[in-house]
Amino acid sequence: MGNTSRALAWLTTGVFAVLLLPRLAQDGMFMDGQLYSAVAHNEARGYGTFWLPRFSERGVAGLPAFHEHPPLFFGILALWFKVFGSGFWVERAFSLAMALLLAGLLVLLWRRWVPGDRGRGTTWWPVLLWIIVPTVFWSYHNNMIENTMAVFTTAAVLFVLKGTGRWWPWRPLAGACVLLAVLCKGLPGLFPLAAPVLCWAAVREGSFRRALSASAVMAAIVVVAFALLWAWPDARATLGVYVEKRLLHRIAAMPTVTHHWASLEMMLNNMLGPLAIVVVLWAFTRKQAPASGSERRAALAMLLTGLSGVAPLMLTLVQKSFYMTAALPLLSLALALWSLPHVEQVMEVMARREVVVRAVKWTGALAVAGACVAAVLLFGTPGRDAELLRDVRRIGPVVGPDRTVGLPTAMWDEWNLQTYLMRYASISLDNGPAPHEWYLTAKGGAPADTAGYAEVDLELETLALWRKGSGRSGRSPLHTIPGQ
What we know:
three-stranded antiparallel sheet; 20 helices; 484 residues
């Protein structure tokens, strides 16, 4: 079935390219992702540090430094900016790199469960089921922190499985990956700690005591590492604020859903596509493809591990679909393992029809080519917020970088405006009473204190830029936070 495997691999590559490349080539991003890009870009250019990253002169949530998440993701992306520069495409290339890394880890996990030629011939299957999950490709389009966390959590699960026979170096590596996941996103990165016990419960390979000790070793690495970080004043300064202001306060004070089962609903909605494909395969091949106990047990192991990344999200009312991004590869892998005999039956039928194999192969190849052409044609065009992006591009060169611009209080929550201005023009916004040389309002609006302001004619589409005829410059020098 070599030709059939290659044809389906081409099809999977085509689906992967179509779902990611055209949108990643475009400008415009969901507010959270643009905010993260701005913080990392600031760090790359020296505005903020690894332990005290910054978004703007006013900051976020009343804090001068950015403490919404732990700092590792921003540090990694800042290094990426230092290497590749400040182009709009840089964070999108980073997202694509994270997607490719995750796909590679999925292949390695698949080969761990399905060894030999059988595994090599079907490596495309878990990747296909994973990449078609809506939250997965949406998260890569929008530079979510969970993309990077998922690389570390998936690697941790892989190392757990590799450490079933011998603990060194796999258990320490698994614990280190969990630590890195937590330093990216916080508590959601802890779920692979349960993987040794859950996998043992499903496949009963080794002993329970050995599985429990593996979880204990991983947990000990995380605990000791955080104890050492807590003893480091720079690390404690940011992690302490994150725990107090974000974990203990915001989670209780800012619910996003009305009931605790919302994440379960989101998970089922996201997995409808893969589930539908698997059910159709099962319906047509259930008589020819008998159930395999080993694949079913492996599927249960990955299902339980994936669910361990979803269930804790339901403990609070702060739930969003992209929070479970790191669990979705494992859930997709579980479906792929469960349905493997049915996929192999379809491949056997395909192998007897050369015309079908060729059609599938050329469909995949044309999809790859089409996605690449579309990415080239769409490169730099707005995928969202087109008018706002055009306004930001016009405002930036006129106002200049590292300035603070006034803004009406009514516009303060327009975070797309704030994040685009900071990411592309290094301009902070301030809705306070202090006068600034520059002032922004909505189109047709005017500063509250109109004395001395004149509108600058930039042919803006959604905004109006005003400049004070006299007064101090709004330039804000790059500096660290006083007293830190």
